[in-house]
Specification:
4 copies of one chain form a homotetramer. Chain A is of the alpha/beta class. Chain A has one domain: Alpha-Beta Barrel (TIM Barrel), CATH 3.20.20. In chain A, 42% of the residues lie in helices and 17% in strands. Chain A is built from 10 helices and 8 strands. An 8-stranded parallel beta barrel of chain A has the order 1-2-3-4-5-6-7-8, surrounded by 6 helices. Chain A is globular. The interface between A and B is large, with 44 and 44 residues.
């Protein structure tokens, strides 16, 4: 089943009550096209979204156990709040390699799914060694831009798929950066990705419903 | 009015449903003794606690505006979730001086109260220049320990009060680190603090109600 | 005595043998105009420059004592290598407030002079609480640009001088960001600064000698 | 040829003039037993050691090109100062995974050898994807301790060798943490390591010459 992950970052349009409508849209389209919809939100919005009918992820967890870690994002706390998974090492929140390994380890122990982000196919391969559920390859220079990774650097997606699978065939590859429409999604699937990671291209546009439907449709063709 | 801030860190005993009972206890004792009670929680628990009858703080906010800041703690998001304030620069989460200044500035703009933590009286003075609502002085080597700051280093509390007020008389001083009972609280008030910041001494003990009541009582004597 | 601090950053033009010529130019002009010349270099170039006839500073030190701190910049090691001082908290290397306090404390203990950088007059005031030798005020958005701080935001320099001196009259104020010629220097001195902090405006220009002489001349007028 | 890397950290005994004697000892024993000797020092000591007859490494480089990076350790500057290589991601200086990749890439481009440190065999495998010259496996909890990794966790060394070679047969494996004598070294070689990374066990002992000779001897048996 294809996957669409919508990352709301710290966008005004992706916080608090703004999430309710977005979640409803994603839920309906997900059911219609049999595409898995994931909403990655600020930790403080996890409880709100977890009461809706969608899979909610944290945008980050710190590599910490229970204990004296004031103000760091506890994997245990986000799980309790209703998260079913988490992004790790997003390009806006890069982590030390030891912390990536530990954050994945803790997440697995408590049943949080993991998507590790990586900027190149070489780094995608490296982080695949930690056996996350997904690796999301996103060249940072294309994030938030007008040209999708599938057009600008299709070989990165292809190479990421190959090199991740050379390490572990069970790790699925997502791709992101600049993905804006159905064509970009079709191309991603064609290159071997099993889904996409999007942010501004969905959260900050007026016609959210139209775009998400176009993307879901392209995914199942 | 005296203030008791309870920081639940990433303690198992201070997450999710465990917070409901703690909040109820604090609420009742706060009303009885006319002490302001603040509960500083994981971002993912802010929505839960904000529905209870207590002032909820975030344990941290990052110095970010709306925008592309995946996985960082947005002051706007914690405010929307119901937080009325935030800790800043806790000893377990020290910040760059520029980020402290900016986090306070954003917090003020959107109506979040601020408590900046500092480990020495000299640093208390420096951060008072940013005009937060409170400075909480806590020598890191005493945090979580058996001896309270008011016994081990009373001069730090005294000096912090004096030097903070030499910068800005409106900034209130809290003290923390090792505070365990009513005597510690009495001593803090005597030294010029207007309240205390506690964590394990309240969150991880069996007789929470007894301890909190003892502390509140000592505060109003 | 006026002070000109030249920060060579990680510029190709400010490394290794390129420093020898720059140092000689600064030395001669410094003597001629009775201006103190300081060259702030990469740690690996301190030994080279310390054999020349100029005051050499490290561009940074970490807040560490002797011990197990692989790869961090030891104040003791840079002192041994011949540094007489160090920059602290440069806008390209911001530090936690506790580490600024500790780095200054260690530096004083072992006889390294300190210049703490700050982006605003409010932060200049805060770091003056740590009693460094100098505070250098540099609005980050002007660093490396074409308009000098003395033109774009003269009130920042003025306010920094006033607020630093309200804390400690012995702390001298430098200013930096976009300073390119004699006029900029005259204006800085007029606003109360006792010197300037420059980088690309000296290190990356062809006519280094001409520019430095113009700056030194403007300082003693 | 076996390799002994001596990391002087920020030890008083491993700075400035103290390095000259250590370097001479290492040089002679290296020649006698045909073991490659590497001395990894503070950046400010690279120029000093590079004039002696030994391979000098930096303890760290930051992932930066030429430019505006005040106070960060430039690979170009340490190369110019005479370093032939660098440690990367030491347990006391962990790096973001993207920065490890970039630091190795820049180092290769300019001819610096690289030793990436890793705490587990899984992380050793991950960083081997960046094709450094060496991966040094060192469980952080054993560093500086009394029990060597080869005794406490021999399977980590064995697994690191196997998993690194499953990624790239040209990457050599070193091991470290608690290595104190010839027996520890023999065991390391037996487990497939091609050398060792030591620090306090050589730098802070009185009989440096005796210990280094014992280690070199054990390496070539």
């Amino acid at each position: 089943m294809g996957v669409i992950v919508v990352n709301t970052k710290a966008y005004k349009e992706g916080m608090g009550e703004n999430l309710v409508e977005l979640s409803r849209i994603m839920e309906k389209i997900g059911e219609k096209y049999e595409v898995r919809m994931i909403l990655a939100v600020q930790p403080s919005d996890i409880r709100l979204v977890s009461q809706l009918n969608i899979d909610v992820f944290s945008q980050h967890v710190d590599a910490i156990e229970y204990g004296s870690h004031t103000g760091w994002i506890s994997p245990y706390a986000v799980k309790l709040a209703g998260a079913v998974g988490t992004l790790i090492n997003h390009s806006e929140h890069r982590m030390k390699v030891e912390d990536i390994a530990k954050a994945v380890e803790i997440s697995k122990k408590i049943g949080l799914e993991t998507i590790i982000c990586a900027g190149t196919s070489e780094i995608s391969k490296a982080v695949a060694c930690f056996s996350p559920d997904y690796v999301a390859v996103e060249p940072p220079e294309l994030i938030g831009g007008d040209i999708s990774v599938t057009k600008a650097q299709p070989e990165i997606v292809k190479n990421a798929v190959d090199s991740v699978h050379s390490i572990n065939k069970n790790v699925k590859v997502l791709c992101g950066a600049g993905i804006k429409n159905g064509n970009d999604v079709s191309k991603a699937i064609e290159l071997g990705a099993e889904g996409i990671l999007v942010a501004s291209g969905v959260v900050k546009v007026k016609e959210r419903k139209k775009i998400i439907e176009e993307m879901a449709k392209a995914m199942v063709k």
